[in-house]
Amino acid sequence: MKHLRACGAANCGRSRLLGGHVALALLLSLGCSRTRPLTVGSKNFTEQIVLGEIVAQQLERRLGQKVDRKLDLGGTLLAQQALRSGEIDMYPEYTGTALTAVLKLPPSSDPAAVLERVRAEYRKRWRLEWLDPLGFDNTFAMVVRGPDARSQGIETLTDAARRKQGWNLGVGYEFLQRPDGLAGLLETYHLPLGSAPKSMDLGLLYSALEQKQVDMAAASATDGMLSVLDVKVLRDDRHYFPPYQAAVIVRAESLAAHPGLRAALDQLAGKLSAAAMRDLNHQVDGKHRPIAEVAREWLATVP
Asked: The whole model's pTM is what?
């Protein structure tokens, strides 16, 4: 019996030692999970990758720590799933896209109302936080040649609707089908058309406009080509197109685990104009400069 008790005591000691190691390993793993590098994601087009790189570099310079990047993830729903699952901590998104494509809610033309709605829904459904917008709205842009706009005195889409000569319109494939696309545009402004709209790849719209194959194109407000071509973006004076304000979405757990994270990201709010975003896109797509270099140069202008 003494021998058995002695063995039991020894086993007990070993068990305590083993339990201590397990507890220590658990604590270390928890500590590591709390201090793992932040991960920034983005969708799979130039503007998104540029924004993701800007966010990552901003965090590295303000927090003084390494930031992982998972840029070029794919489309909206893939980026959203990566955020919800914790694969990434944050990514840039657009309010109108969140409202219609993710939340499946009706469009609205009020930027503040759309931001408030997506902010509340994301927080309630997934504990995801929308930070304040970066400063630009990447909505649709109806574009005409600059000389035409100047000679005909066209500034707005209402002005364009008064033109007696019908417009030859060039559009991307999706614009023909989207709820915020061609049908609603024609209903709102009654634009006269000279021929059936020509659908084409988005990358061909500007060359078609320059070559006078079309004389109005449904482009995007932050396209890089807008910063270098003599074209005019017509003002949507009846506010047909919904707002697509760019902002960073962050997991609430990430904000809680990194006390300086929100403050670092807030420094970007309101700093990036549509004109600046167009220039950044052109630096990458038009001049083929490295994205990291373009992002670093722009961040140097942010106090």
From this structure: 0.75
Could you give the C-alpha distances from 194 to 8, 169, 185, 210, 279, in angstroms and in order?
Answer: 95, 8, 16, 18, 33
Q: Is 64 exposed, middle or buried (0-12, 13-18, 19+ CB in 10 A)?
A: exposed
> Block means of pLDDT (10 residues each) for the chain, length 303 residues?
38 43 44 70 92 98 96 91 97 93 88 97 98 95 97 97 95 81 92 94 88 95 90 94 95 96 98 94 93 97 90
Residue 44 sits at φ, ψ, to 5 deg, of: -105, 45
CATH for 140-234 is: 3.40.190.120
CATH architecture assigned to 38-137+244-299: 3-Layer(aba) Sandwich (3.40)
- Count the neighbouring beta carbons within 10 Å of the beta carbon of residue 73: 22
For the record, the structure tokens of 179 come out as: 């709820």
